[in-house]
Design brief:
The protein has 157 residues and is mostly helical. The chain is built from seven helices and no strands. 68% of the residues lie in helices and 0% in strands.
Length: 157
């Protein structure tokens, strides 16, 4: 089952996508008046999104969060490689679509920086700003590594 098939449609994940995309300026309160799925400024993850996923049953007795983390860790390296290949080949349409898909899977788990960077990459590519693709991809790869490490730590807690 694909990552999106496991996690898409959870109310918190959908709300978090909007909140991450419209993150307030530093020091401003999170959107939604503190209710719902506030974005944590303390790290790379939206911990409220994970808490919502933890409350839902997953496969084989695990929580949906554990299933989603497993899928993210399986899919992220493959998606980043495909994105890097598209950028290297100047296949901007494929790169844009890949960045959009990556944003979707990262949103489900609240991988904030992956969401932000993949969204920025997709948006820039859609406007033809291909000169920044390599730099954004490098940042995205680092953010992906940080998100995977944080998710693994959250799983063990």
């Amino acid at each position: 089952m694909s990552f999106l098939g496991v996690c898409a449609g959870t109310p918190c994940a959908l709300q978090s996508a909007h909140e991450v995309a419209t993150e307030p300026a530093k020091g401003a309160p999170p959107p939604g008046g503190g209710g719902g799925c506030a974005v944590s400024a303390a790290g790379p993850l939206d911990l409220e999104a994970l808490a919502q996923l933890r409350a839902l049953p997953g496969n084989r007795g695990a929580s949906l969060a554990d299933d989603a983390i497993d899928a993210f860790q399986r899919e992220l390296p493959t998606r980043l490689r495909a994105l890097a290949q598209a950028v290297a080949q100047s296949d901007w349409r494929t790169a844009e679509h890949g960045a959009q898909a990556l944003r979707g899977i990262a949103t489900t788990l609240g991988a904030r920086e992956v969401v932000r960077l993949s969204g920025e990459l997709a948006e820039r590519l859609s406007r033809g700003a291909t000169d920044v693709a390599g730099a954004l991809l490098a940042e995205l790869e680092a953010a992906g590594t940080a998100a995977m490490e944080a998710l693994e730590q959250e799983r063990s807690e």
